[in-house]
Design brief:
Helix content: 25-40%
CATH architecture of the largest domain: 2-Layer Sandwich
Mean pLDDT: 87
CATH topology of the largest domain: D-amino Acid Aminotransferase, Chain A, domain 1
Structural class: alpha+beta
Number of domains: 3
Number of helices: 10
């Protein structure tokens, strides 16, 4: 498997000076700080000249002067939605992950689902909810034609921030109020009961899936980052089903303009059908994270994984594995 990643042979000096963007001021700041710290340690352990740069600091842009590339470990709005990507493009600084379009569409759950539906990719039914701050009571009326159960979520947050499952009418108002703390546009998505899966994308290939099981109502923020009773299975499926799911993940990833690395999340219903939930263009890189878990299953430890991701910044083609760095 490791022979598929010639990036591992790159001399650390070739990367030059690397800024690891982390922190920021989104709802996912704490997770980003953890991801960025792990990435920074992994880069430095391999002799790569890297330093941390918290974008919540007022003068952070001044420190971009003289750097050669960026490892983007920002999560959520402001770092994962195309804004930072646009800035770095204008400064002609190479960076990890998807570009402006893929980042923006990946963060925008509503438009992402619209594209998937147009391409006949399987995603649960949904309804957009627009908040009227002057008349909050209209929110529940907007959902009169959407049968319960549903998942209420902000249309542009990650890490399950602001998400709630709604199984009865009593749970609806608290779920809407929680999601409305983050944005004026919400998404009510048909609730799929079943197994939760994710497929990591790295250099144009799908890695083995991870199947997550949690005693919580769903794979929420607590289950992702805090709990110790979440169980993981990787690979999560038999070989034939892995290939099927990997193909859907790659098609969904490319459909919204994503590139480099990322993660595609699914639900599997009781009939065995897979349903696309969302794309994560900068997945977590913490001790509980899923991309490192999938990479480890094919022989890539965490430092190796980080180096492979960063290596995509050395070429305009995110699928850098097509370049041979020699034996």
């Amino acid at each position: 498997m490791l022979a598929d990643f010639p990036e591992l042979k790159i001399d650390p000096v070739d990367f030059g000076r690397v800024a690891v963007l982390l922190g920021g001021d989104s709802a996912e700041r704490e997770v980003s700080l953890q991801s960025g710290a792990a990435v920074l340690s992994a880069l430095q352990s391999q002799g790569i000249d890297a330093f941390a740069l918290d974008t919540a600091k007022a003068d952070w842009q001044l420190q971009l002067s003289g750097i050669n590339r960026v490892f983007n470990a920002l999560h959520g709005r402001g770092g994962e939605d195309g804004l930072i990507q646009g800035l770095l493009d204008s400064l002609k600084i190479p960076y990890t992950g998807s570009g402006v379009l893929g980042s923006a569409l990946g963060m925008d759950k509503l438009r992402c689902k619209m594209i998937w539906r147009q391409l006949d990719l399987p995603t649960p039914d949904w309804q957009e909810i627009v908040i009227d701050r002057q008349n909050f009571s209209t929110l529940e009326k907007q959902l009169e034609k959407m049968p319960l159960p549903v998942m209420i979520k902000p249309y542009c947050e990650g890490s399950s921030v602001g998400m709630s499952p709604v199984f009865n009418a009593v749970e609806l108002k608290p779920a809407l109020e929680l999601a409305a703390k983050y944005t004026d546009h919400l998404l009510a998505e048909s609730y799929i009961k079943g197994g939760e899966y994710t497929v990591s994308i790295l250099g144009g290939r799908a890695l083995p899936s991870v199947h997550m099981e949690t005693p919580n109502k769903f794979y929420d923020y607590d289950a992702k980052y805090l709990a110790n009773d979440t169980e993981y299975y990787c690979p999560g499926l038999d070989l034939e089903t892995e290939r099927l799911l990997g193909d859907i993940a790659l098609r969904a990833f490319k459909a919204v303009g994503c590139s480099g690395w990322g993660r595609v999340d699914f639900m599997r219903d009781s009939q065995g059908n897979f349903w696309l939930l969302e794309v994560n263009t900068i997945p977590g890189m913490t001790s509980h994270s899923l991309v490192p878990m999938a990479a480890k299953s094919i022989g890539l430890d965490f430092p190796m994984l980080v180096k492979v991701i960063l290596a995509a910044t050395l070429t305009g083609n995110p699928n850098i594995t097509t370049k041979d760095y020699g034996a």
